[in-house]
Amino acid sequence: MERRKKMDTPSFPDHFLSPTIRVIVGPEETVYHIHQDILKTRSPYFARLLSFGGTEVIENTITLLDPIQPDAFRAFIEFIYIGNYQLPKRSGDKHRSEVCLLVAQIYVLADMMCMDDLKVAAVNSMEDLLIEGRVHNSPFTKVVEYVYENTTDMSKIEGGKIVPRDELRASLSAYCCCYIEKWMAYEEFSTMARRNGEFAVDMLGQFKNDSSAWMSMWRRKKKAKNIGDQATS
Questions:
Q1: For the segment 122-154, what is each residue's pLDDT rounded down to a tens digit?
Q2: CA separation for the pair 100, 211 (Å, rounded)
Q3: pTM assigned to the model
Q4: Angle made by CA atoms 48, 102, 22, in degrees to the nearest 5
């Protein structure tokens, strides 16, 4: 029985025999023609949408609005076809911060598409970027804002401590805690932290849960890489 199931599972080349569907993305209404089997196999969101038989299926067109960003959607297409995505080459602190924003957009898209594997890949990409070198204050502040505006607060109380359960929120809040004196010295960042209650609560939770896996991870990485100053004005 198990063997029959494996035989019934389409191989990767078989996906290209399936019909395509138009996916319209972003303000410029870029049109992609994507194989339906690939969408249904890789994304639970599209699997439900395409099995419903609604307007999108009848018209063979899906329109995706904000907060989906075109560059993030291109990374999504790479990922569903080849299992990975390529980020732009980084040159300098400010550009690295801008790539961090793209990764945040990929994560938000993965969350919408119910794709845990793409979320994990995006968290790993973010951590690699932050370990790689310094980030520019202003665009990185926008990264934190974007993540908190477009993800859901799933913090919970465990043993009297606040534990953020969204992985990118948890990683970013722990990262900022590890360099809190440097980051809070920047007016734009400190203003954002005061304005964004959920981010402030998550940072407070990281402080109270000083031995959390996220704080421990960033301390290990900081020590291993000797990162030094992590923000530039």
A1: 999 998 888 877 778 888 899 999 999 999 876
A2: 26
A3: 0.82
A4: 40
